[in-house]
Amino acid sequence: MTFVRVGRRFQGPERSGNGGYVAGLVGTGMAAELAGSQVAKVTLRMPPPLEKDLELTSGKLTDGDAVVAEGVPVESEFLADATIDPVLPEEARAAEATYRGLHDHPFPTCFVCGPANARGLQLKPGPIGSGRTACTWRPGADLATDGLVDEVFLWAALDCPGGWTIDLEGRPSVLGQLTACIDARPQPGEECVVLGRYLGEEGRKSFTASTLYDADGRVLARAKHTWITVDPAAFN
User: The whole model's pTM is what?
Assistant: First the structure.
């Protein structure tokens, strides 16, 4: 059992934690629960509270008696269709110029892609056609552990590039579930490329995938997401 605290830097909406970052806290703590061919699937059960001591144990994050998020092992084949074909960094940088969140972001304080969060990752996933997004990312030195970017921030970086394949202006959504596999960790300052892909929707749910590549075009991490349509006013 450990206690974790989601600082305001790591918020998504104004009053709760970023879903990818919080899922990463749970997923990266599940080493004992995962067999060699398994990955973590993390479901968010409530908006993660900010600046509170939360208990993390055995794949479950709780706030007193309330379950904030919980993870379960799934077979790695669940992510078999999550890898998105790479694009060159030049194409990803060009896509950033058309990132819709710069002008009409439902959660502008988001740690991953919020233009109002100066200490965030500042990702700008712009459309590149065929239901895909792309952007670049140079992780800062403050995100590193033992000389490489900490896995929890890779979970976070996999979050919003998938979300922006949805019409977030007309269909504002928050992360409900994230399944991720971390294959390798980049060095701080390395130019990475993150891609998202739209997979479909059902009722209030939307389904997406994302892939993180390093500067040499090697897959670093993959993920699949479930998003839930919400009223942004209820979160902000």
Answer: 0.96
